[in-house]
Design a protein that fits this description.
Strand order of the largest sheet: 1-2
Radius of gyration: 33 Å
Strand content: under 5%
Helix content: over 70%
Number of strands: 2
Order of helices and strands: HHEHHHHHEHHHH
Number of helices: 11
Shape: elongated
Length: about 425
Amino acid sequence: MTGKKHVKKKSVILTVALLILTMLFSTILPVFSSSSYAAVLSGPGTDPTALPDGYDQERWDRLWDSELGYEELPYLIKEFNPTIVSADQAFLNSMGDVEMEALAAYKMEDNFKDDMEMLEESGALETMEGQIMYATLKAYANVMGSTGDTISYAVKQAKRPNSSAYRQIEHAVDMLTNGAKQVMIGYEMASSQKETLEEMRAMYQALYEVSLAQKGLGMATTADVCQAKANLIAAEKSLMSLNNTIESLETTLLQMTGWSTNEKNRPEILPIPEVDTAVLEEYNLESDVIKAIGNNQTLIEKRRTSSDHSTTGINAKLREIEQDEQLITIQLEGLYEAMFQKKGLYEAACLEFERVEMAMAAAEIQYQNGGISQIGYMGQKLAWLQADGARKSANLELLQALEAYCYAVDGYLAY
């Protein structure tokens, strides 16, 4: 009878331990449903905390300074994004709860050992009943110690950066980082257009004033003045709309990276470095396809999904996986080609900018010498700004294509 109780007790304890571990791995997922950025967190722009593992002092200090750089985005998301911070805290809380269960198991083990020691000291081991009780207590102590070890090991494994328990958070970091990169690229594209629009507005303002003066001299009609005014209003509206876009993108970027959106505490958003086109030659499509297939999150889940264990079911699953691999291959090839197409467009934009820059240098000299009017000079400067903006936009589009390709290789290609 005692043996049956022992088995039953051990089964209950192990079942509880398994339930605890199951709860651990399921508690971190709901935090990703929250999109609130209302919490005020210690982060960039404030005094840095202690240097964590995985950082050198220079990189850590840069995350806390008053500048926001493109290359800092993965680290800012990991350390300061409110959703990730909440997920990390929930994960650590879960770890703490489970570690308490391990301590409770070890405490019970100690209690059973104390009871064993009391039996030994009382002389009860000289009787059959005492020996049975001692063996039972020893078995219970062993079960509790084993349970504590099992839970402690599970916690240790779960805390590893590459553990399956933490992988959900790592995937969220990757996805939010990709989103932040796209927002910052969009912000820079819009910002690079702002100077062009401001020059256009200034030029239309000058043309409007010229048309008013010419009308007074009988050299322009009312329709000419109205058209000049309409052009000026259109430029002002476009500039206002662009400013709103820039403000919206900036706010989103700051929220995603944990920065305060308070006007006084906003960082300087640094220009995104231009893509070195030579980097593209380092990518190998054939090997990257293998990586993309092996890393793809959707395909990994599909491989893990069991079939009905029949030959027909297994073959159907294998065919589906093969088709998915072909789709990934085709899409990655498309991203690879798009990357080099953007490279060609960027190089063409650079050549056009060089041509316009020479014309601008000539216009500077002509304007100083009185060879061209203010309107003519402004028109040439506008052409220069447009060419410069086109060159910057082409480089940013190349960066987008490069990021899309790398994101797919890392396993986030939707097919």
